[in-house]
Design brief:
One of its GO terms (molecular function) is protein-lysine N-methyltransferase activity. The chain is α/β, with parallel strands linked by helices. The protein has two domains: 92 residues, 2-Layer Sandwich (Alpha-Beta Plaits), CATH 3.30.70; 139 residues, 3-Layer(aba) Sandwich (Rossmann fold). The chain is built from nine helices and 14 strands. The protein has a seven-stranded mixed β-sheet, sandwiched between helices. Strands 2-3-1-4 form a four-stranded antiparallel β-sheet, with helices on one face. A three-stranded mixed β-sheet has the order 5-6-7, covered by helices on one side. Strand 5 and strand 6 form a beta hairpin. The relative contact order is 0.10.
Length: 297
């Protein structure tokens, strides 16, 4: 079976009525993404985008004549008779989508001697530190800039004997990387039960089940008996700010705080919120920023 894909670019206020109209025309699926440069939004993170221009993609059975649909959209949703809504029409040939999806993931080196390897692939370097991972619903495959920066930082650390807190752990990729850098144990916390399950699966896949505890936030002690020399939070700036007290409460007085999921434009606000008692180093990849905070000496 083949499909026809219609791609429109519209103002955000037109997304809902246009989606309703396309569903009435028997669209099988409708997706949206940012069509402007005003804001980056990652769907794996919580929150609502505030896009101004939206790319709306509708999928139709190729037996449907889409010409009347395009004509209807232009008449009903264009700002004027002289201004047409940008539209692309593409034919998608049916194929084994699972196989295509699997083939898009290859082993990647994310840091010094640290690799992410999909479970169906042979490691490029069997003697390297390899994290075997299945991309899934939980966030964290090593390809996003925020995760990549954390992995690169962790790969260069010697965490011998340390207990690490990974808050917003997703697949558990950063917790596993910390263990491969010498940490003795990692507590991986995520608000999503699917992420907790994914972390457990990946811990088993990498042979570190006894070294990782996958937890929901309410399972983490609010006043811990022990604090962590390294606390990682790869979430979003607004969430990190909300979690400020929690993160600091679990950090040893001489510990290191690793913060990302932060746009470069938000870094100063996050640094100001965590205060002047710490020293800060920042790293940037694309529009994302990694903040490494350590106590002032």
């Amino acid at each position: 079976m083949s499909w026809i894909q219609l791609i429109f670019v519209v103002d955000v206020n037109k997304v809902e009525p246009l989606s309703d109209a396309l569903e009435a025309f028997m669209a099988q699926a409708i997706t949206t993404e940012n069509a402007g440069a005003d804001e980056y939004y990652e769907v794996a993170f919580p929150g609502n985008p505030t896009w101004k221009k939206v790319q709306l993609t509708a999928l139709f059975d190729d037996a449907i004549d889409v010409a009347p649909i395009v004509e209807f959209v232009q008449k009903q949703f264009a700002d004027s008779a002289q201004t047409e809504i940008p539209v692309q029409i593409e034919k998608l040939v049916d194929q084994d989508w699972e196989r295509v999806w699997l083939s898009s993931f290859k082993p990647i080196e994310v840091g010094s001697n640290l690799w992410i390897c999909p479970s169906w692939c042979e490691p490029t370097d069997p003697n390297a530190r390899n994290i075997t991972l299945d991309p899934g619903l939980a966030f964290g495959t090593g390809t996003h800039a925020t995760t990549h920066m954390c992995l690169r930082w962790l790969a260069d650390q010697s965490l011998e004997g340390q207990r690490v807190l990974d808050y917003g752990s997703g697949t558990g990729i950063l917790a596993i990387a910390a263990l491969l850098s010498g940490a003795s144990h990692a507590d991986a916390v995520d608000i999503d039960p699917l992420a907790v399950a994914a972390c457990d699966e990946n811990a088993q896949r990498n042979g570190v089940t006894d070294q990782i505890s996958s937890l929901l936030p309410e399972q983490l002690e609010p006043e811990p008996a022990h604090r962590y020399p390294l606390v990682i939070a790869n979430i979003l700036a607004e969430v990190i700010l909300d979690l400020r007290e929690t993160l600091l409460a679990h950090l040893q007085p001489n510990g290191t705080l690793l913060l990302t999921g932060i746009l470069a434009s938000q870094a100063d606000r996050v640094i100001a919120a965590f205060g002047e008692k710490m020293s800060y180093t920042t790293h940037q990849q694309d529009q994302w920023c990694l903040i490494v905070a350590t106590p002032k000496t």
